[in-house]
Task: inverse folding
């Protein structure tokens, strides 16, 4: 995707979250179908947590202090991991996945302000993408914040972030329909 495509997708996701969940109360945002599922609030919290986990890596890249592992120089692996992760977060995939512990959402009650917090987060994400244009142009490679041996290009990381958001938007929609039933 290009910067304009990323921005359009981010705006679409943000608008959908505000429209569909912005008027929910804290109790509605925290409703869970059962103990094994997340609430809508936890889904939004998870997206903020996972996206923010990329920030230290991006700051190190910008500062010239990022130390990639050797796998990042193996183009085949970089492409393989990037494509694999992107495919695994497709919104149409129905297979449930367990997240890495560093990306678990809060287990406490999520504040009703989570929708506003998500909107602010989305604006920061767009600012981050803008600030990474040079890194993207030069094909910067990073490791996943959750597992250092999983390497992919920074532009693919933004593709993954947005696709992951779309996947979880669908999850939140399903939860909200269950709550209303």
Result:
């Amino acid at each position: 995707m290009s910067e304009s495509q990323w921005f359009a997708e981010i705006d679409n996701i943000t608008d959908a979250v505000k429209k569909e969940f912005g008027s929910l109360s804290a109790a509605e945002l925290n409703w869970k179908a059962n103990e094994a599922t997340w609430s809508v609030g936890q889904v939004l919290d998870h997206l903020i947590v996972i996206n923010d986990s990329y920030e230290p890596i991006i700051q190190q890249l910008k500062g010239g202090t990022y130390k990639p592992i050797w796998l990042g120089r193996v183009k085949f692996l970089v492409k393989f991991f990037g494509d694999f992760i992107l495919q695994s977060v497709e919104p149409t995939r129905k297979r449930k996945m367990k997240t890495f512990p560093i990306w678990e959402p809060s287990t406490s009650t999520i504040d009703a302000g989570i929708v506003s917090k998500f909107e602010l987060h989305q604006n920061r994400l767009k600012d981050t993408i803008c600030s990474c244009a040079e890194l993207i142009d030069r094909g910067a490679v990073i490791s996943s914040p959750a597992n250092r041996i999983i390497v992919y290009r920074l532009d693919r990381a933004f593709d993954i972030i947005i696709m992951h958001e779309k996947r979880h938007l669908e999850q939140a929609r399903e939860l909200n329909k269950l709550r209303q039933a």
About this structure: The chain has one domain: 3-180. The two ends are 37 Å apart (CA to CA). DSSP finds eight helices and two strands in the chain.
